[in-house]
Amino acid sequence: MSFIHFAIFLTATILIPLGIGLYHYRSIAADVRVFLYLIIVGTVNESIMITLSWMGYRNLFTLHIWMVLELTLLSLFFYRTIQSREWRMYARYGAIVIISLAFLYAFYGENIHGFNSLPRAVQSLFIISLSGWLFYERYVTRIGSDPARDGVFFINGGILFYFSASFIVFTFSKYVIDSSYLMTFIKAHSFVNAFCNLIFAYGIWTSSRLYSTAL
Amino acid sequence: MDILAIVLYGTIVFNLAVVIGLMLFVRRSWRIRSEEQKKRQARMVEQGKVISIQQDIIDQKDQLIDKYKEILKF
Fold first, then answer.
1. pLDDT over threshold 70, residue A51
2. What is the ipTM of this complex?
């Protein structure tokens, strides 16, 4: 199996949370539904990227579009799950500022056909802070239901792992000169992405009503 | 394996360990606080029982006093 086939195979793991989410769509919680929309948009984006690459076109501009959509939906997810008024405001206005930065970076700062390293790095730090706060607020300051039976617990853990593990990849992918190093970056990101897709699938399944009634 | 791959995969493994550790810590702290809350609730129920027993004794005492008063009238 060549590297490209292997990368596509790992990328295709996004179909697992997508399938589980669509199957349980009616019974999953409203805040997890927002995350499911992100999975749907992610699947469309990955399909477009693979198709463009297969047809021989440059596909890096889709990373800029994907980042804006991802940040919008993730901040909406955190906006719905976080209770604190201050942090909700932080999620809303932080997303607006970073999206503005991404547009400026894409059209004025750097070439749109290159990697979006700077806004992606800032976005990673922003999402890591929101994810950490959600863990603290939802499970440390309040005594709610068991975290192990809460889908948001696993989804948030997956988000935290994805952005913290891919931080180096996001930050330095633009500045890598050797293509073999870039392949190492892409391979590492594919592994992280595939692992997170499995965590997201488990989180979506846990948040469905079918899981809670099966206990 | 080059140095870049070691750094990247090392970072991934490190982050995975940190996130799993954080999740386990959160779950453990939730369980401890949940048990504490259950104990507190049980203690409050016990206190409620003691208060209701004390109230019964006071009621009985009042009833006895009333009875004695009636007897003393005769």
1. yes
2. 0.83
